[in-house]
Amino acid sequence: MARKTGRQHLRVGVVGVGRGRSFTRAAGVTGMELVAICDTWEERLLAEGEALKVQTFVDYDEFLGCDMDAVVLANYFHEHAPFAIKALNAGMHVMSETAACHTLGEGVALARAVENSGRTYMFAENYPYMVFNQEMKRLYQKGRVGEFRYGEGEYVHPDPPEVKLGRSCGRDHWRNWIPATYYCTHSIAPVMYITDTRPTRVNGFVIPFDFSDPAQTLHMRRSDTAAVIICRMDNNAVMKSLHGGLRGHGNYVRIHGNKGVMENCRHGDKQRLRVWYEPWEKREGDPVETVYKPDFPVHHDRATRTGHGGGDYFTTWHFAEAIRKGEQPYLDVYRGLDMSIAGIQAWRSALSDSAAMEVPDFRDESVRRRYEDDDWSPDPARKKEGQPPSSILGNIEPSHEAKSLAKKVWASKGYTGE
Predict the structure, then answer these.
(1) What fold, for 10-127+315-325?
(2) By the 8 A CB rule, do 222 and 173 touch?
(3) pLDDT one-digit tens code per residue, 263-320
(4) Which of 49, 84, 96, 246 has the smallest C-beta neighbourhood within 10 Å, fewest atoms?
């Protein structure tokens, strides 16, 4: 268990001044005091530090020397585990953005580091805390739809190439090479959270890179359009995760129980919840179908003023509460690893004609020992024999037009590298 802190305000530092802005803004309203920020992009770092009136660090090791209780990791997607392990070893509590790990070997090391540190680790997956997902969890726990049998989670996020280039400066920025299955936690996490289940096996399917779509051909991304992951859950339910750059922006969650169905609405106000039953099975006096907009269970006014549908508030709030109580939060290291590993194993599946792959449970040290040396990764910086490609089609080289547009957009962001 993590130790309680005696401070009235938890002193926290944030790594990453881009995505990290959500956490720097939420710190004060959750009883945390922001004392330092860290980033390798020095110009942006100094500007943000001046605006926030906090210490700034380019060097992560120096940043960890600050007098603080906790670290929030909003650095690059594929670098969270090594940073988290360093912070835990330095005696810090850690909240880590997605993904929890980039390889299975990193996942093993992270689980061990959390256990050995006695510190709180929070996986900052914010989509479970959207208002309709919190309401579905409440209804599920009350038995209103029976036992979970099938679920769907969708995170569909298309953007024009200029927008995508603006948040992926540099040829080898992680957004430009991460395989389509990896960014899966926004779609898998809500179903896991609502039903308290975990995936045990996955089959990965990929919608390949679309050479007729300018939104892709004018971008530097070298991976595929989208992915579908079919998960077998530990109660034998099945769920489908859909995520990627297809047309039709939105995030949706559907839960089929053996007594009813619930989902957030796909038209109009998508924060509304729809719950319905078969006429011959519903409770007497209940309607067949109910559509309503729920409130957050706590802190409704604060949550509605934060990003990602209130999710950014609740991740920070739950992190602070867990530290104060000296415990691990619901989205602990093991659930973070379950969600993250599902995407890695789904890529293995997609490259193996969608064969089923195990999602190992790193709560078990005997299981961890089988994967502790697994460094399978498409990261260009980790190239070696046996490492996978970023696309189901193999190696994709961006077009001349994409490179020209990238150079222009990156320069407008102050980025002058390749």
Answers:
(1) Rossmann fold (3.40.50)
(2) no
(3) 999 999 999 999 999 999 888 888 999 999 999 999 888 887 776 678 889 999 999 9
(4) 246
Q: How far apart are the first and last CA of the chain?
A: 45
Residues of the chain with CATH 3.30.360.10: 128-307+332-382
According to DSSP, the β-strands at 93-96 and 121-123 are parallel
Q: Is the peptide bond before 99 cis (omega within 30 degrees of 0)?
A: yes
Residue 278, burial from CB neighbour count under 10 angstroms (0-12, 13-18, 19+): exposed
Tokens of 202: 């996955």
Residue with tokens 């996490």: 189
Q: Which is nearest to 388 in space by CA: 82, 80, 79, 102?
A: 102
Contact 31, 88 (CB under 8 A): no
**C-alpha distance from residue 87 to each of 17, 71, 361 (Å):** 18, 7, 23
| CA–CA separation, 407 and 399 (whole Å) | 13
Q: What is the pLDDT of residues 217-268, one digit of tens each?
A: 999 999 999 999 999 999 999 999 999 999 999 999 999 999 999 999 999 9
Is the entire prediction scored with pTM above 0.70?
yes
d(C-alpha 34, C-alpha 350), whole Å:
42
Homologous superfamily assigned to 128-307+332-382: Dihydrodipicolinate Reductase; domain 2 (3.30.360.10)
Domain with CATH 3.40.50.720 in the chain: 10-127+315-325
